[in-house]
Amino acid sequence: MTTIAALRAVEILDSRARPTLAVTVTLDDGTTARAGVPSGASTGSREAVELRDGDADRYGGQGVQGAVGHVNGEIAGVLVGRPIADQAELDRDLCALDGTATKSRLGANAIVGVSMAFARAHASSAGVPLWRSLTTDGATPRLPVPHFNVINGGRHAPNGLDFQEFMIAPVGAKTMAEAVRAGAEVYAALRTLLAGKGFATGLGDEGGFAPEIDAPEDVLTLLVQAIEDAGYPATRQGVAIALDPAASEFYRDGVYHVGGQSLSSDDMIARFESIITHFPVWSIEDGLAETDWDGWVRLTERVGDRTQIVGDDILVTNPAIISDAIERDIANSALIKLNQIGTVSETLDAMRLCRQAGWSQMVSHRSGETEDTFIADLAVGTGCGQLKTGAPARGERVAKYNRLIEIEVDNPQLPYGLL
User: Fold this and answer.
1) What is the DSSP letter of 4?
2) pTM score, two decimals?
3) Whether 219 contacts 244, CB under 8 Å
4) Which of 54, 132, 342, 370 is 20 to 30 Å from the Cα of 404, by its Cα?
5) Is residue 131 within a helix (H) or strand (E), and if so which, with residue range?
């Protein structure tokens, strides 16, 4: 059994200059590992709850000293010196200690930091890479197709674009190194294209450009041109496009507000049908609001045989919600975010459920990130075949892509690509 010898958290900054936690675990054999906790801007209403201080005199109320205190106090008091059999036992103990369904007492940000740091320490102590230790029954490790967020809108950028993320996915690459190269080259071509058309090339939260464009179709036209300018085929088999409209953010009073238009669920579905007919869009995440379950059923029926339909806000990496959605034929894929559910074990459980149901999964970062690369290993170890972690720019995003390249170099036998 493994014994935790020391546990410590500190308040640090994320990539948006907001506070978050870094948690360090030390085992009795001297192994030390650290985890940085991500934080989202666009969040589902049923996500595990971050604990923020609410002190207006510090970071506008966004401080996390309370969560840090829980790690250094109550959580450490229970875990330090105790033998722990495995990750699942640790995570069960953390959930029991918190005692709430949403991890709101101790804070999901405190709990997930401890869970991630322990997973990394446990792997290091065993002498195996983190990705290997995260491989569960029924999963075959593989290098995922990276989904680069190259145009930002919605909550991620100060522009008038309602759709939140426009991503490029080098589906046709043969290796991770080729995929990262394609992403960087298309990103550079897009910068040149935007500048040439007089658009600003400032960046949004996730490193994508944030031009003043209102219509999603206009962005898609630019992306196709940038992909081709970079010398790649803009096709579903070459460099494809993925969307994350984050529709809950522009859904009010039963209506979707996009580019000055008011659209019903069926109007939105018809618009997506038109988009996937005219552009090489292979994946749509959160195309409808988290409360529009009937709309999700129709969206999946209408385009699910041609397009990956990914649930994020509607599923929040929660095994119970995912199970319900599978039974109701809502979506055919799940976005996977560690801090949405709050522990590594529950995340792996959610991914196992999806795999057993024939659903795909896409591991994801958050808009507020640190340099931590845990999710790169998670995507490889679970063999899900997909990872999104922002543009091929900004250190906290690039760190994940560079980690994937390193894994490939060290493990050339690993396959690359979608499942």
Assistant:
1) E
2) 0.96
3) no
4) 342
5) helix 130-133
CA atoms 61, 153, 365, 270: torsion sign: positive
CA 274 vs CA 10, 181, 257, 354: distances in Å: 49, 30, 18, 28
**Would you call 337 a catalytic residue per the annotation?**
yes
Q: Which of 388, 375, 383 is nearest to 419 (CA)?
A: 383
Strand-pair partners of 64 = none
- Among 103, 337, 388, 400, the active-site one is 337
CB atoms within 10 A of CB 200: 12
Dihedrals phi, psi of 87, to nearest 5 degrees: -60, -40
Nearest to 79 by CA among 31, 118, 127: 118
Residue 121, classed as helix, strand or coil, is helix
Letter for the amino acid at 247?
A: A
Query: Which is it for strands 145-152 and 165-170: parallel, antiparallel or unpaired?
Result: antiparallel
Q: Are 275 and 220 in contact (CB under 8 A)?
A: yes
Collapsed DSSP state (helix, strand, coil) of residue 368: strand
Tens of pLDDT, residues 46-65: 899 999 999 999 999 999 99
On the CB side of 93, CA atoms within 13 Å amount to 19
Give me the helix-helix angle, 108-126 and 374-382, nearest 10°: 70
SS3 of residue 388 by DSSP = strand
Which residues fall within 8 angstroms of residue 320, CB to CB, at 6 or more apart?
Answer: none
Across the range 86-115, mean pLDDT stands at: 97
Q: What is the Cα 160 distance to its own chain's centre?
A: 23
Q: Give tens-digit pLDDT for 116-144.
A: 999 999 999 999 999 999 998 889 999 99
Among 329, 379, 328, 335, which residue's Cα sits nearest to residue 360?
335
Alpha helix ranges (H) inside 127-261:
130-133, 176-196, 216-229
CA distances from 381 to 136, 180, 352 (A): 8, 19, 12
Q: Which DSSP category does 196 fall into?
A: H
Q: Render pLDDT for 358-414 as a digit per residue (tens, 0 to 9).
A: 999 999 999 999 999 999 999 999 999 999 999 999 999 999 999 999 999 999 999
Distances (CA, A) of 137 to 3, 72, 286, 402: 25, 34, 29, 27
Residue 174 falls in the annotated catalytic set = no
Query: 11, 206, 285, 290: which is the annotated catalytic residue?
Result: 206
CA distance 39 to 370: 9
Distance in angstroms (rounded) separating the CA atoms of residues 383 and 377: 10
Q: With DSSP H G I counted as helix, E B as strand and the rest as coil, what are the percentages for the chain, rounded to 5?
A: 40, 20, 40
Question: For residue 200, what pLDDT is reported?
Answer: 87
